[in-house]
Sequence to fold (430 residues):
Amino acid sequence: MDLETLVSLAKRRGFVFPSSDIYGGLSGFYDYGPYGVQMLNNLKSLWWNYFVRQRPNIYGVDSAIIQNPKLWKASGHIDGFIDPMVECKKCKGRFKEEQVDVKKPCPSCKAKDSFTKPKNFNLMMKTHIGAVEDDSSVAYLRPETAGGMFTNYELVRETTRAKIPFGIGQIGKAFRNEISPRDFIFRVREIEQMELQYFVNPKEANKEFDQLKEFTWRFFVNDVGLKKTSLKWHEHNKDERAHYAAAAFDIQFKFPIGFKELAGVHNRTDFDLKSHSEASGKTLEYFDPESNKKYIPHVMESSPGLGRLLLAALADAYTEEEVKGDKRVVLKLAPQVAPVDIAILPLSKNDKLTPLAQKVYKLLVEETPLLVEYDDSQSIGKRYRRQDEIGTPQCITIDFDSLEDDSVTIRDRDTMKQERVKIAELINHL
Ligand code: GAP
Fold:
């Protein structure tokens, strides 16, 4: 399956829309539709549950998108978060240097020998705070959620009385002025990240780093249900690593555009706490009650992008099958990721079936936490097709026999097998 197939399904079925579509969209920005936002919420709760809620020594925060700009100076982003960029002198197209062969013609206008020398381009998104727009009011939208976890490190430690090792987790938006956003939601300018910063004793750093790698991998396989064969590790060499990382591994996913980064696991050493300690003048040393010694904790980071994870889940689940000579498109999403759990489909719309179908709908919505959708438009075949394409694991059909035997038919998305279940036993059965 190519990327265009997924882009089309995502728009047609209400997962992802170009941002401000009626104005022609905006490069690098996307909106999530009714099924997309539910899937994002499912992925966020899976992450929060696994990384924060189930761990006694991991605490959540929600820090502001705009922080004191001194933070980004100390973190090295104002000076170091740059991509070398080349520009075509003819069409003015701008490209990341690594994306083009400057000896070849411009990929956009085909002009020969048209590239400028590489210039450094800072990816931070700038804004101004308050009424005056001058250098003193410049602020930045955060380029990663991590910064707000380092500035809150001491407050979290004090308020929770946590001992090293402990972690801070956060889900939130980050912004990068990518030179050439591309490949749908793979490379965008408004990103959502789910990051864990784990603060450890420097002596334990290597062991903790290896454990965090495995911990992150297990999330994708066990909790999100991605196929193991769709994932692999990629170790960054020195040139690829971010300015703060002493070691960095990507978990790559087999996207329709090839194996690419889905999440990063980084050993950030004492870079962050040391830089913020020096720049702010507040000591961020930890007193170790066991050894009676002080040290600056090292940070192990796990950082998946939420949009990329949604794209990975869609790509992994996308299946085309032949059923009785017809093509069936079905998203075989893990039930915990699927945006709808159950669809209630009365065979037809009339004053006998509608009240019973609505009774079943109400029963499930009120008595269970399931995500239930009610659909009585179009033929039953078209409705099954639609539910298959949004990945609904089970459909419940109410037919004329239901009026006689108080039973409904449950159809399984993957096997398409149908079984009859009494309405009174429905909740237990599901
Ligand atoms: N705090 C570390 C950090 O931000 P990163 O490797 O730059 O590390 C982490 O980003 C994750 O965020 C990536 O693995 C990816 O999933 C996501 N991400 C980064 N830039 C992105 C972009 N422009 N578009 C979509 N996702 C992006």
Observations:
- The mean pLDDT is 96.
- Residues 351 and 357 are 10 Å apart (CA to CA).
- The pocket of glycyl-adenosine-5'-phosphate is lined by residues 144, 146, 176, 178, 187-188, 191, 193, 195, 261-264, 301, 303-305, 307-308 (CB under 6 Å).
- The radius of gyration is 25 Å.
